[in-house]
């Protein structure tokens, strides 16, 4: 699969999961520096996994804040996943006076499991995407943003949640 960054093509490494499949599991790192299985969030409520290349950039910040605002009105678990370090996520949360659940994929497990790795000029990042996983751990919605510099379609994600 290919996406673009400011019009330049980028190859997305791997195979992305599709609707109807069990959500792949991966070990990520919490803001407290503890390893956690992604699957540990599945079960009680639907889970929205918002994937950003770098939370410290404008579009990623907009995506993270917008989903935080919109999903606060929904009965879902909201997670942001990126290759940002724990320290970068903590600094970002502090600077924005937020306390969001952010998960670091610095070990690249999530990127491999979800087929989202992209090389952005020698910097290995994740393709911008959104996954909705139901209480049984089945993927109900996938959005991989074709242009990494663009925000995702928020309305489509919210509609998918409402249709669960």
UniProtKB/TrEMBL annotation:
The name this protein goes by in its record: Redoxin domain-containing protein
Top-level taxon: Bacteria
Alphabetical keyword list: Antioxidant, Disulfide bond, Oxidoreductase, Peroxidase, Redox-active center
Every Thioredoxin domain range: 17-164
Organism: Candidatus Atopostipes pullistercoris
Pfam families for the chain: AhpC-TSA
GO molecular function terms noted in the UniProt entry: peroxidase activity
InterPro entries with a match to the protein in the record: AhpC/TSA (IPR000866), Thioredoxin-like_sf (IPR036249), Thioredoxin_domain (IPR013766), Tpx_Peroxidase_subfamily (IPR050455)
Claim: Disulfide bond is one of the keywords in the record: yes
């Amino acid at each position: 699969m290919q996406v673009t960054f400011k019009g330049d093509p980028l190859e997305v490494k791997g195979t992305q999961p599709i609707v109807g499949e069990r959500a792949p599991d991966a070990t990520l790192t919490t803001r407290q520096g503890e390893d956690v299985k992604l699957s540990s969030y599945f079960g009680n409520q639907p889970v929205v996994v918002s994937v950003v290349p770098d939370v410290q950039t404008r579009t990623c910040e907009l995506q993270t804040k917008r989903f935080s605002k919109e999903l606060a009105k929904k009965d879902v678990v909201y997670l942001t996943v990126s290759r940002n370090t724990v320290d970068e996520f903590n600094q970002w949360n502090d600077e924005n006076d937020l306390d969001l659940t952010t998960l670091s994929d610095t070990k690249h497990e999530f990127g491999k499991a979800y087929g989202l790795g992209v090389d952005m000029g020698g910097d290995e990042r994740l393709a911008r995407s959104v996954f909705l996983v139901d209480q049984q751990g089945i993927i109900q919605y996938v959005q991989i943003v074709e242009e990494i510099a663009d925000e995702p379609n928020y309305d489509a994600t919210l509609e998918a949640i409402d249709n669960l």
